[in-house]
Design goal:
The complex is a heterodimer of chains A (279) and B (579). Chain A is α+β, with helices and mostly antiparallel strands. Chain A is built from 5 helices and 15 strands. Chain A folds into 2 domains: 89 residues, no CATH class; 133 residues, NPCBM/NEW2 domain (Jelly Rolls). By secondary structure, chain B is mainly alpha-helical. Classes of the chains: A alpha+beta (279), B mainly alpha (579).
Chain lengths: 279, 579
C-alpha cells in the first residue's frame, strides 16, 4: 500500500492568495478603526445640536413673522426647554397645555438633528430656513373651528363630585383639562346643559400624575353622552397616555355629560379630560 | 516580569486610581443618597469612637440611636454600614487635620476613591498573574477609563466600592483554589466586606458555587484518571481538600460573621434586623426610569436593559476588545491551551459578570439604578479586553510577518501592542473626559453621545446632582436681590444645605419646600430633566404663569436643568451655560 504525504508548497503563491494570512489581522484592524472612529465621534458630539447663535438667529426670524395665536413646537422633544428659553414668551401656558394642535392654523417648528414634531406630521412647509444646526419651518393649514372648548367652559357648579380645571401631566406631557377625582368605584359627572355643537366632538382623556399611575394600576373610564345618548366610552390605562376619542354630532345646542369613573381599588385616580366641539 | 516591576506598577495604579476620582469629583454635585450616607456615616463613626473610648456605646439604646430605629429607613438601617462608617471616619480625620467646610464632601468621598485605586491594583494583579503584565495593565487602565464607573468612584455611595469588594472576594476565592486555607479565610473576610457594603453581595455566591462545582468536577475527574484504583468518593474528597475546602464555610460562616462584626445593628435581634434589611430590598418601591423612550416604574421591565445600557455606556472600543478577548479565551479553552485551566479564570469572570447582570434579565428587578447596579461586571469586560487587545495585535504582527510585510517580529510586537493600546486608551479617555462632570447624561459614541442618548430616550440622569451646575447662575441672581429668594429645588433639596455649607450657594437662596406648597413659596425654581420630572415643569408653569425658563444648563447641547424665575425677580434673560 502506498501513501501520499503532503509536501509543503514553498513556491510563491500567485496574486492575492499570498495575502490570505492577513485575514488574521482583521481583529487588530477593527480595534484600530473603532478607536479612531470613537475619538472622532466623541470630538464631534453635540456639533449637530444648535448653538446659542443658531437659536438667537432662528428666534429672531420667528419673531419677525410671528402672528398672535401661532403655535410654536420643537423637535426632537428634548430640545424643548432650550426652545422655550428663547421663544417661551410667545407660548402661553394654555397653548403649551393644548388638547391638540387642530385649532392652530399656523405652526412654527424649530427642529434639529432631523427631528419632526407630531403636530406637523403630513404637512408641507410654506416657509423654511436653516440657522446653523436649527431648521425653522412654518406650516399653514385650515384650522378646526372650535365652537365649544369644554375645559374653558367648565365651571365648578357643573360637576357632581370633585372636579376642577387644571394643567396636569398626562403621559409626560402638559395638558390643560378638567381634572376629575372619582372615589374608588365612584363616578364624577360633569354636565354642560347647553353646549354649542358642530359636526364633530373631539376629546382626550388620560390619567394624571406619574406616581398615582404607578401606585394605582386600575384604569379609569370616561363616558361621554350627548342629549342622553352615549357617543364615546373610553378606557384610560396607566400607560396609555393621552387617549383620543371622536364622535359625530348634530350641529346645534345639546346637553353634554362627561362621566369619569374609577375602579374599586383605585384609591387616588386623577382623570384628566378635555374636549372640543368642532364645526 | 519581576516582582519589583509588578509592585511598582501596582503602586502607580493605586495612586492614579485614587487621584483620578478625587480630581474629577470636585465638579460633581452632591447626589441625593450621599447626603443620607454622609449623615449616617458621621453618626456611625462617632459611635465607634465612643466604643473605643469606653463611653458606654455598646448598649441596645446607643446602637439603636446611631444605627437603627423603628422605621426601616431610620439611620439608613436599610443599607449595611461599611462604606458609611469609612465615610464618617474619613471626614472626622480630615476635619481634625484642618479640612474646612469646603472640603467636607471631598473628605467623605475619599474612601470610595481609595477603593477604586485598590480595584485597579487587584484587576492588574489578577490579569498579570493569569495572562501577563500587559493584559493586566490594560485591564486596569480600561477600567479607569470607564466614564460611569469613574463617576461613581468619586461619590460617597456604595456602587463603586461594591465593585472593589466583589472583585476582592472573587479573586480571593480564585487564589483559594491554589492555596486553600489562607486564601479561603481571606475569601470569607472579603465576602463579609462585600455583604457589609451593599445587599447585592448576596448574589455573588451564585457565581462562586457554579465555578467551584466546575473546578471540583474537573479535579475529581483528573484524579480518577490518574489513579483508577481510588473510588469516586475519595477522589472527590481529595479534590475538595485541594480546591477550596473553605469555599462554603467562607460564604456561610466567615462572611456573615464579618458582616455582623461590622454592623452593630445586627448585634441584637439579629434575625429580625437581617430580615428587615433584605425585605426592604425585596419589596423596594419601583422608581421611575426612562429607557428607550419609555418611563418604567413597574414590572415587567425590558429584559435587555443591562445589555443595551452597557453597550451605550462602556466605551465601544473596550467592548470590541472585550469581545475579541472572549472569543480568544473560548478558543483557547476549546484547544486545551487556556491559562491555569484547572482554575478556569475566564469562566469565573464570565460567571461574575453573568451573576452581576443576571437579575436584570428577569424582568422583575427594578432598573432605576441603571449601570451602577451591575458595575461588578466591568472588571470582566476589561480583563477580557486586555487579553483581546494583546492577542489581536500579536496575531496581526505574526500574519504581517508571514506574508513578508514585516521583519523583526520580536521587536515589532511590543511596539505594535503599545501603539494600539495607546490608541484604544485614547478613545476611552475621550469618552471619559467628555462625560465629566455630568456622566449620567453621557452616552458613548455608539449611542451618538449625550444627544444620541436623548434621541434614543435613554435616562437623562438621576439623583439630582447636576443642579450644582446652575448654582453660579442662582448666586448671580441672588447678588442682585436685597431679599431672600426661596428656590423650589425638588430633587436637589437634600443637597441644598450641603451646598450652602460648602459656600456654593448664597444664604439668600433657601430651599422653598416640596411640591405645590414649595412652588407657591418659591421665587425661583429648578427642574432637573428626567422624563417623570416633567410634572415639576407643569407645576411651575401653573404657578408662575409662564413656560419660559430663564436659564437652561446643557451638556453637549442636551438640557439637564432649567431655572424659572417668578415675574419681576430677574429683569433680563440670562445666558445659557457655556460648555
Amino acid at each position: 500500500m502506498s501513501t501520499a504525504r503532503a509536501v509543503p508548497d514553498d513556491s510563491p503563491q500567485p496574486g492575492w492568495r499570498r495575502y490570505r494570512p492577513l485575514a488574521g489581522a482583521i481583529p487588530a484592524l477593527l480595534l484600530v478603526l473603532v478607536a479612531i472612529w470613537e475619538v472622532v465621534a466623541v470630538a464631534r458630539a453635540g456639533s449637530d445640536v444648535p448653538a446659542d447663535g443658531d437659536w438667537e438667529r432662528a428666534s429672531a426670524a420667528v419673531r419677525a413673522r410671528h402672528q398672535a395665536g401661532d403655535l410654536i413646537v420643537f423637535a426632537p422633544e428634548w430640545i424643548d426647554p432650550v426652545g422655550r428659553l428663547h421663544l417661551g414668551d410667545l407660548i402661553p401656558v394654555a397653548m403649551a397645555g393644548r388638547m391638540d394642535a387642530a385649532r392652530y392654523g399656523r405652526i412654527w417648528e424649530l427642529s434639529a438633528r432631523g427631528g419632526r414634531a407630531p403636530e406637523t406630521r403630513g404637512l408641507e412647509p410654506s416657509w423654511q430656513q436653516s440657522f446653523g444646526a436649527l431648521r425653522v419651518r412654518l406650516f399653514e393649514r385650515t384650522p378646526a373651528v372650535v365652537l365649544t372648548d369644554f375645559v374653558a367652559a367648565f365651571a365648578p357648579g357643573m360637576a357632581r363630585g370633585p372636579a376642577a380645571e387644571s394643567l396636569q401631566e398626562v403621559g409626560f406631557e402638559p395638558h390643560r383639562c378638567v381634572l376629575a377625582r372619582p372615589r374608588p368605584g365612584g363616578t364624577v359627572e360633569v354636565r354642560y346643559p347647553a353646549a354649542e355643537l358642530g359636526r364633530t366632538l373631539v376629546g382626550y382623556v388620560g390619567l394624571a400624575d406619574v406616581f398615582t399611575r404607578r401606585d394605582d394600576r386600575e384604569p379609569a373610564r370616561l363616558e361621554v353622552s350627548v342629549g342622553g345618548v352615549t357617543v364615546a366610552d373610553v378606557v384610560a390605562g396607566n400607560d396609555a397616555g393621552w387617549v383620543r376619542f371622536q364622535a359625530a354630532t348634530a350641529p346645534g345646542t345639546a346637553e353634554v355629560v362627561f362621566r369619569a369613573s374609577a375602579g374599586p381599588n383605585a384609591r387616588n385616580r386623577l382623570v384628566c379630560f378635555a374636549a372640543e366641539a368642532h364645526q | 516580569m519581576t516582582g519589583r516591576q509588578r509592585w511598582i506598577t501596582a503602586v502607580i495604579l493605586l495612586v492614579v486610581g485614587t487621584a483620578a476620582p478625587l480630581i474629577t469629583q470636585r465638579d460633581h454635585g452632591v447626589v441625593r443618597d450621599e447626603v443620607v450616607y454622609m449623615n449616617a456615616g458621621t453618626a456611625y463613626a462617632r459611635w465607634w469612637g465612643d466604643l473605643f473610648r469606653g463611653k458606654g456605646a455598646a448598649t441596645t439604646e446607643q446602637i439603636t440611636a446611631h444605627f437603627g430605629g423603628k422605621q426601616v429607613t431610620d439611620h439608613n438601617s436599610e443599607h449595611p454600614p461599611l462604606m458609611k462608617t469609612l465615610f464618617g471616619i474619613s471626614e472626622a480625620v480630615v476635619s481634625r487635620f484642618g479640612g474646612g467646610q469646603q472640603h467636607k464632601v471631598t473628605a467623605y468621598r475619599i474612601p470610595t476613591a481609595l477603593f477604586f485605586g485598590l480595584l485597579l491594583v487587584m484587576v492588574f494583579l489578577f490579569g498579570a498573574s493569569v495572562w501577563g503584565w500587559t493584559e493586566g495593565v490594560l485591564a486596569a487602565l480600561l477600567l479607569l477609563l470607564m466614564p460611569r464607573l469613574l463617576f461613581h468612584a468619586g461619590l460617597a455611595t456604595f456602587d463603586a466600592p461594591m465593585v472593589t469588594v466583589w472583585t476582592a472576594a472573587l479573586f480571593a476565592y480564585y487564589k483559594s483554589l491554589e492555596r486553600p486555607w489562607l486564601w479561603g479565610a481571606l475569601f470569607g473576610v472579603a465576602f463579609g466586606l462585600a455583604l457589609a457594603t451593599k445587599h447585592n453581595a448576596v448574589i455573588l455566591p451564585a457565581a462562586i458555587l457554579v465555578h467551584w462545582s466546575w473546578v471540583l468536577v474537573r479535579e475529581t475527574r483528573s484524579r480518577r484518571a490518574a489513579d483508577t484504583e481510588r473510588g469516586l468518593g475519595t477522589a472527590l474528597w481529595r479534590a475538595l481538600l485541594r480546591r477550596g475546602p473553605l469555599t462554603v464555610p467562607a460564604m456561610v460562616v466567615i462572611g456573615p460573621l464579618v458582616l455582623v462584626a461590622l454592623w452593630p445593628w445586627l448585634w441584637f435581634d439579629t434575625a429580625h434586623h437581617v430580615s428587615r434589611w433584605i425585605g426592604f430590598h425585596l419589596h423596594h418601591v419601583d422608581y421611575n426610569f426612562e429607557y428607550l423612550g419609555q418611563n418604567w416604574n413597574h414590572p415587567p421591565f425590558p429584559w435587555h436593559v443591562a445589555i443595551v445600557t452597557t453597550l451605550f455606556t462602556v466605551p465601544t472600543v473596550t467592548l470590541v476588545a472585550g469581545a475579541i478577548g472572549a472569543v480568544q479565551l473560548i478558543a483557547r479553552a476549546r484547544a486545551g491551551i487556556a491559562s491555569q485551566p484547572e482554575r478556569a479564570p475566564a469562566l469565573l469572570l464570565f460567571l461574575s459578570a453573568g451573576v452581576a447582570m443576571g437579575p436584570f434579565l428577569l424582568r422583575t428587578t427594578p432598573i432605576f439604578g441603571a449601570s451602577k447596579h451591575w458595575l461588578p461586571a466591568m472588571p470582566t469586560i476589561t480583563l477580557y479586553a486586555g487579553v483581546g487587545l494583546v492577542v489581536a495585535v500579536r496575531l496581526a504582527v505574526d500574519r504581517l510577518a508571514r506574508v513578508g510585510l514585516l521583519k523583526r517580529v520580536e521587536r515589532a510586537r511590543p511596539i505594535a501592542i503599545a501603539a494600539v493600546a495607546v490608541l484604544v486608551c485614547t478613545a476611552s479617555a475621550f469618552e471619559t473626559v467628555d462625560a465629566q462632570p455630568y456622566a449620567l447624561t453621557h452616552y458613548t459614541a455608539l449611542a451618538g453621545g449625550a444627544p444620541g442618548g436623548a434621541d434614543l430616550g435613554m435616562n437623562r440622569q438621576f439623583w439630582g446632582y447636576s443642579a450644582v451646575g446652575v448654582l453660579p447662575f442662582l448666586d448671580r441672581v441672588a447678588a442682585h436681590s436685597d431679599e431672600p429668594l426661596p428656590v423650589y429645588s425638588h430633587d436637589a433639596s437634600m443637597a441644598w444645605g450641603v451646598w450652602m455649607r460648602e459656600g456654593l450657594l448664597s444664604r439668600k437662596l433657601p430651599d422653598a419646600g416640596h411640591e405645590e406648597s414649595g412652588v407657591r413659596r418659591s421665587k425661583l425654581a429648578i427642574v432637573i430633566h428626567e422624563l417623570h420630572f416633567n410634572r415639576h415643569d407643569y407645576m411651575i408653569w401653573r404657578d408662575y404663569g409662564t413656560v419660559q425658563p430663564v436659564y437652561v444648563l446643557t451638556t453637549d447641547g442636551v438640557p439637564i436643568v432649567s431655572v424659572y424665575a417668578r415675574r419681576g425677580v430677574i429683569s433680563s434673560t440670562a445666558t445659557r451655560h457655556p460648555r
